Amino acid sequence: MPKEITKLIHKYLRHDKKFPHVWCPGCGNGVILGSLIRAIDRLGLTKDEIVLASGIGCSGRMPVYVDFNTLHTTHGRALTFATGIKLAKPSLTVITVMGDGDATAIGGNHFIHAARRNVNLTAIIINNQIYGMTGGQFSPTTPYGSHAATAPYGHIEHAFSIAELAVTAGAAFVGRGTVYHVQTLDKLIKAAVLKRGFSVVEIISNCHIQFGRRNEMGNPVTMMEWMRDHAVTVEKAEKMTSEDLEDKFTIGILADEEKPIYTEEYDKIRERAGD
Amino acid sequence: MATVMPKKKRSLLQGNEAIALGALAAGCRFFAGYPITPASEISEVLSARMPRVGGTFIQMEDEIASMGAIIGASIAGIKSMTATSGPGFSLMQENIGYACITETPCVVVNVMRGGGSTGLPTCPGQGDVMQARWGTHGDNPIIVLAVSTVTDCFDITVRAFNLSEKYRIPVVLLSDEVVSHTRETVIFPSPQDIEIVDRVTPSVPPEWYVPYENNSTGIPDMAAFGEGYRYHVTGLVHDERGFPTQHPEEVKTFTNRLFRKLTQGLHEIQIIKTFMMNDADVAVIAYGSVARSAQRAVVDARSKGTKAGLLQLITLFPFPERLVDKVLKQCIRVLVPEMNMGQIYREVQRVNQGKTDVKKYNRIDGQFITPDEILGELLLEE
C-alpha cells in the first residue's frame, strides 16, 4: 500500500521542478498534498482540466510542485483569481489552497463573498493556527491564551471557526478534517471537488515548529495526538452534551446543500439579455 | 448573439459609455468591477452588454478582488478589463504588480477625480499620473495612456487592449471626470477598419513550450490555462519555466526582459497627437481633458498673432522623451497645464535639461482648466 501511494504521487509531481520543497520535516502540508492527489486521481480528472491556485504562505507553495495548471497568487487573493478563471472557462476544475491567515485574515472578505456567490470552486484551507512562513505570529485561528511570536504574554483574541464561518456565509459544501484522519480527509476532498457549487474543506494541520514549540507541542507526533484526542465526528457530536464538546472540534461534513451555481445562473442572464 | 458594435454609425455618447464600447470592440469579454463614481457607468453599460455578446460581467466585493478576477480570466485566455477611480485604483496596485510580473494582459481604467484619499467626489483631477506609473511596489514597467475626448475613449481603449495583448502587460487607461461624463457625438469606424491585436499563443507542442522564454522580442507566447500547456504562474520572480528563482543571473535576465520588450516597441507604444505644431514657437504640452482646452487656446493665441501649437500626449508612460524633446528644441516657450501640482511638468523638465523655458500651470481646486486660462498663460510674456 505505501509503495502504491508513493507511485501515485510521482505521477502528479513536477520532476523538472527544483526539489526539495520548502516545507519543514513533519509538516502537515505534505499529507494534504497527498490527499488532494488521491482525490483527484480517484475522480479520474485529467491534469489539463485541473487548476490549482494558492495565496501566500507555506500553503502557497503547494501548486509549484504539481503538474496541473498552477497559479501562485497574492496574499489572500487566491479566490478572486480562481473566480476569474472559472467564469472565463467553466469547464476547468478550479481548486484553491490557502492557509488560515491567508483565507480568513487578509483574504477574509474574498472568502465570505465567494461562499455567498456560489461559483463552482473548491477552497482547501489549511488551518495550522499560526503564520508559519513569517515566523509564528498569531493568526485569526490562534486559540485564546496560547503563545505566538507576537503574543509572547498569551493571546487575548478569540479564534474563528473556519468551517462554521463558511457555513454561515452560505457555502454549498463544508467539511472539516485533520492531517491525522487521512482517510476521512481523502473522502472530504473528493466530495468537495465533486460538489457542484462553492465547497470548503478546512483541514486542521500541524505547525509544530512555529505553533507547537511555543505551546508545549514541539513535534508532529504530539500535535497529531492532540488532533486524535480533540476531534469528534459530526455524527458522534450530535449525541454529546455541550460540556463534553467544550474543548473538542467536529470533523466530517458540516453542510451539503443544493444551491443555484453562479455560472449556470449567468447562462440564464445571457439568455435573458438576448439580442 | 448580439453584434458587438452599436447599430448606428454615429451616436451621442458619454465618455464612459465609449470606453465600454471600445472594450467590446477590442474583444474584451470579461469585466470585473466595484462601484465608484465617476467610473460606474462603465460597469453599468457592460453589465447590460457583456451577456449579449457571450461575455461575463461580475461585480466583485472590492477593487482588489476585481483586479484578481480580471487577471484570472486573462490567464484563462479571455481579454479582460476593470474600471475604477482613485480610491479603488489604490486598492488595485497590489494585483497590478502581479499582472506586471506574470505578464498578464489586462486593461485598468482609472477615471481620475480630484484630491487625495477620498478627495473631491467627484470633481475632475489628474493627480494619479505618477501613481499609474509607480503605484505598485518594485520596479516594473507599465503602459499608461490618457484620453481627452469621447472619440478617444473608444479608439484609445481599443489601442490599450492591443498594446496589452501584444506586449503582455497591464495597460492603465487614464480618463478624468470631465472626459468620462462629457457627451458628444462619436462616429464609429467600420468593424473592418478597427485593428484588433490578440496575444500570440504557442504553436509548439506542450513539451517544447517555455512559458517565460527569453526570446528576441522579449515577449513570450502565452498559453491559456486548460489548453494542454500546463505551466506555473507566480508573482515570485521566476525562471524561463515559470518556477521561482533567486539566482542572480536568472533574476537579472527576467527583469531586463520586462524592460526590453517595451523599449523594442516604443515606436508603436508612444502615441501623441500634434496640433498646429509645424511652425509653432510656443507650445502647450497637455493630456486628458486639459488637452481640449489647450487646443482651443492655441487657436485663440494664433488669432492674436502668437504662433502656438499643441503636443497632446496620449501615452504618458513609457514617457515619450524623444517626441517631447523635439518640441522643446523647436519652441522658445513651453507650457504644461495640469490638474495636479505638476506631475508631467517634472517629466518634461527632466527631458528639457535647460534647453528652453518650460512653465507649469496647475489647478488643484477640483475645477477644470479653461481655454482662457491657458491662453492667458500663453500670452503672458508677449
Describe the 3D structure:
Chain A: This is 2-oxoacid:ferredoxin oxidoreductase subunit beta. Chain A: One of its GO terms (biological process) is cellular respiration. Chain A has helices at residues 2-12, 28-43, 78-88, 100-106, 108-117, 162-169, 182-194, 208-212, 220-230, 234-237, 262-273, and strands spanning 50-54, 69-72, 93-99, 122-127, 173-178, 199-204, 231-233, 249-256. Chain A is α/β, with parallel strands linked by helices and 275 residues long. In chain A, strands 2-1-3-4-6-5-8-7 form an eight-stranded mixed beta sheet, sandwiched between helices. In chain A, strand 7, helix 10 and strand 8 (249-256) form a beta-alpha-beta unit. The model of chain A has no long low-confidence stretch (mean pLDDT 96). Chain B is α/β, with parallel strands linked by helices. Chain B folds into two domains: 10-193, Rossmann fold (3-Layer(aba) Sandwich); 274-379, Rossmann fold (3-Layer(aba) Sandwich), CATH 3.40.50.920. In chain B, the strands form three sheets. In chain B, strands 2, 3, 4, 5, 6, 7, 8 and 14 form an eight-stranded mixed beta sheet that branches. In chain B, strands 11-13-12-15-16 form a five-stranded mixed beta sheet, sandwiched between helices. A two-stranded antiparallel ribbon of chain B has the order 1-9. Chain B is globular and about 70 Å long. The model of chain B has no long low-confidence stretch (mean pLDDT 96). Chain A binds chain B through residues 14, 16-18, 47-49, 51, 53, 63-64, 67-74, 77, 80-89, 91-92, 109-110, 113, 266, 269-270, 272-275, and chain B through 1-2, 30, 32, 48, 51-52, 54, 56, 58, 60-62, 64-78, 80, 94-95, 98, 224-228, 230-236, 241, 243-244.
